[in-house]
């Protein structure tokens, strides 16, 4: 279980630090590692406890997270918005945020030395419902249902933002260029400002928390979630939490806690139970990736299937420009390329068409999604693509074939008026 707010500081070699004579004195650094929020940050609580215990100042480092992630323009814009907001809120509390988007934390610390040499560096961790294996690693199942049944405990409660008062101290020794507030890049035409967008929000933490409040308590969103979650158009058919989770401006444990609060108020209805299930899917893929490592991302997937596709680069290149050769899919791709967001149903159609009709390697599609999606996450993206390609955790695909969506039937079920198709039909090329 996550400890309570009084987080015990781990013993550190050479602790407590000697007061140095250089400007600023001893310091404790929190490396954000892409977790751009103050709420539910266990590492921030530990850093604050260490700083208070030793009279050190706190500084926050925002560098390029060291991971296999491929961040595309939509996600980078969201990330910059989240970072700018966090910067402003930390500075308002007197705490410096030093940022260097090109360097990893290790490289940034090397560059900062000897001007700034933190006595301890704590690293923020990705938000998960469970801090340690929710099902023992050696018994971790390959498919979701046994995972859910085997869960050994409840998700851990979130921590509130810590009190940062008095932890800033002097900033004289910090390089000025690193303290300049980050400026979010302007939105590409359409992105973030397109009135058709299903995700028209900025990526910062206050917006994330406002969205959580809106979807759970100020609208019928969560209550109706099970009925609406396969929708294709608009902001309300699903929660739109994933882009915030992707840039770490929202904690999944905060979402879970608020869903429980909703259930205390309104009872455990279908919508809230289904939301818990989807959040557990996220958890399942995160821990699966941790369990299987590179095999999780390998073309043969967890099932180690031999490849069954055609490496047609021309066809793939056309697809990346939004030309899949099917009007339904082209509309989905147009939405994806313009806004970075795509409904879950739309993603399933696109991936199924890519694998079953175009017969292209699923890893190509997954890699492109990782660049294009506003909520891209390697584990969630690969987990879902591999599932649909029949090499991952779809129980039906073990020993069988991948799930194939009958697109005409799907349209009849989920877009009978062709609302999405008309809204996102790609522009017809004009003769030159
Ligand atoms: C081919 C494909 C690729 C995908 N790539 C990503 C990705 O890179 N990043 C990502 O966050 N999600 C991915 N998903 C999962 C899912 O489509 C999105 O999480 C969801 O559409 C986000 O919108 P929402 O927050 O409104 O979802 P909601 O339906 O409101 O769900 C709430 C939350 O539950 C979790 N969730 C829901 N569905 C899934 C799922 N299938 N797998 C894992 N978690 C889920 C997400 O955290 C989501 O924010 C992918 C799905 C497919 C089919």
UniProtKB/TrEMBL annotation:
Residues 26-159 form the Photolyase/cryptochrome alpha/beta domain. It holds the Pfam family FAD_binding_7. The keyword Flavoprotein applies. Residues 1-20, 183-203 are annotated as: Disordered. It comes from the Bacteria. Its cofactor is FAD. InterPro entries: Crypto/Photolyase_FAD-like_sf, Crypto/Photolyase_N_sf, Cryptochr/Photolyase_FAD-bd, Cryptochrome/DNA_photolyase_1, DNA_photolyase_N, Rossmann-like_a/b/a_fold. Residues 189-198 have a biased composition (Low complexity). Keywords: Chromophore, FAD, Flavoprotein. Belongs to the DNA photolyase family. PANTHER family: CRYPTOCHROME, CRYPTOCHROME DASH. This is FAD-binding domain-containing protein. It comes from Cyanobium gracile UHCC 0139.
